Structures are given as structure tokens and as C-alpha cells.
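Cross-posted from the bioinformatics board.
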Amino acid sequence: MFAAQFGSPMGVGFNPGFGAMGPMGGQQQMLMMMMTMMQMMQQMMQMMGAMGGGGCPGMGMGMPGMGDPFGGFGNQMGNGFGFPGGCGGFPGGFSPPGVPFGGGFTPQAPGFGRGPGCFGGPTFGGVNNAPPLGPGGFGGPSAFGNRLAADAQQIAQSGVAGRGGNCKRGVRMALNRQGVNLDGLSAYQGADQLARNPRFREVRIPREQLRNLPPGAIVVWDRKQGHPHGHISIALGNGREASDVIRNQITNYGSQFRVFLPNG
Amino acid sequence: MVEDEELLPQQEADDNQPEDRNQLLEQLKDLSSRPGPAALLLRAGHGWLQGTLSTPDLRARAAEFEANLQADLDDPLLISQLDRLEEGLDGELEDEVLYALLGLAYQASLS
């Protein structure tokens, strides 16, 4: 829609919202207004890119304050104008009736507006300002972490959560026993929830450190091709992880991961 | 060597169903009937949860279990469940006691 509006020859034909204009002055005035709008949008897209975190800036987030006209902006403008994007955005966006640029709300349903192979969207990416941790920086076991790990281990051992296909269920049950809720259908959706939970702190560690995590540390992997839910697990402190089953800590899932250490 | 991720089965979405407490009680009953270092404590705990055993009696069983632990035992997850059991009894928190006993059962079977 946006591309169609700008794709039409300047000053030709219908001129909505700009009032009466002379043939020449109207064209110049319209050109200036459009350039101003382009500059404003570029600034907004840059802001969105900065806020978007890892993965695909501009993907699926919509644009605050904008609805339908720019809903598919990431797709249409992503490459040709050097804006972040290329992973879709939510086609059409959302505009309440009678609010041409209003709303600014884009549903964040899983997979909405994402092209294949594009992961790390707003429900996973967030803004990862977590400090990088070196070896020995985990701070050792915590009472909360020990209990969480023991619960996760017992749940996985009992088989009540599944047999390897529902990691989210096992982790969710273990967290519930500690009074922590984990909503959503998919494992990857846990990342942003844990990032907001004061009982955890997010850290950045290299992949090869994952098997050194203390008990109760949670690793969340983003989706990837063939794995639409991603993966989540609780470290047991011995290089193993528990979810709905117990296995060696996965280090090679093949997508982005986020790590959350238990506090206290 | 087979990579871990290759072992991942077909994924399912979480149904978000809460744990079934009756099922957990059944689990505890089943675990308490198996021989092991925690069997007496688990039986006592099941009795406490059913209202047939007093809190002091369960505390006594827990103290016996702790005393019988090997001196060199250093399993932080097991210790965490004992602490949790004590806190659960202090606060009369049935769920905490249940979870602690289940955790103990598993940890004790490893030690």
C-alpha cells in the first residue's frame, strides 16, 4: 500500500489530503512533503532497528503510531531503501477504525509476518543487554536454582511432561512449582518472560560454556527450520539438562540462544 | 557420535495443563513402596499429606533420614529438598512438602 502510494507519478491524478494545489506548485509542495515524510520514516525505521535486538529488525513489530499504511513497510522498503527489514513485518498492521495512522499495535502471534528462515523476532530477540560472562562468572549454585533443578529433574524422570517432544511443558511445570508462570505454547516464548522476571538474570555466554551452567539455569533456543517451538531446558549443574526428559546439555541446536541464571 | 539435536523428537505445543495433584500423590505412594534409603520418609510424608500422621512424626522421620545420610554426601539438590521439606512443614505448606518429597525420592535414588 505504501509502495503503491509512492510509486505513482508525482502530482498526477488523485491527491488525497493535500488540498487544492496548482498544477506546478502542487507538485513541488507535494514533493517536499513526501521528502519530509520519507525522512521521518527513515528516522523511525532506524529507531525500530535499534530497538529490535537480534535477529530481524523491523520484523513483526509493526511501527508504533502507524497502522495500515506502513504495515508491510519492512517488506516493501527493506532492501531498496537500505532500511532494516526484509523479514516481513505484519502485512496490513492494525489500525482502529477511523484512525488512519493509529493503533501502532501489531499482534505478536508466533510466526506472524515472518518469512522462512527468519527467527529471532520480537518474542525472542528482545533487547539483550545482558553482560557477557567469562568462565567462573556464574556465581555458583543458589538455593532457588537447586530447587528448580531438583524439580525439573524429578518431573523429567517421572515422564509426566512427555517423552522428549514437549520441553516447554516440563520446564513450565518445574517453574510452576517455584511459583513462576511460563505462558505460551512454545519454548522460545519463554525467553522474553524470563527476561522480565526478577528471579532470573540474563547473561551472555559462549556456546561452549553451556555445559558449565549452575543448577537451575535456563537455556532458551529460538525456532529454526523444522523446530517451530524452539527449545527450553533447565541445567542440572552437571552438564546435563532437564525439560520433559533428561539429556546432555544441548549446545548445537542451531539457532540463537538466551541464558537465564536463577537469583537467590 | 550422534549429535544431541538429532535426538530431538517431533515437537508439540505445550497444552499448559497444570500438574495433577492426585497423580503426584499416587507417584509419591508408588515411590514410597519401593525399597530405598528414603522409603520410610516417603511413607511418612504420604501419611502426613493424607492427614494420618502428625507433623512432629514426619519431622522425626526426616531427622532420621538426614542422620543416615552418608557423611560425605554432598548433593546440593538433595540438601535443597530437605530444606524445602523443613520449610514446608514450618509453614504447613502441603504442596511444598509434596514437591520436596518427590524431589527427595529421586535424588536419594541417585545417591
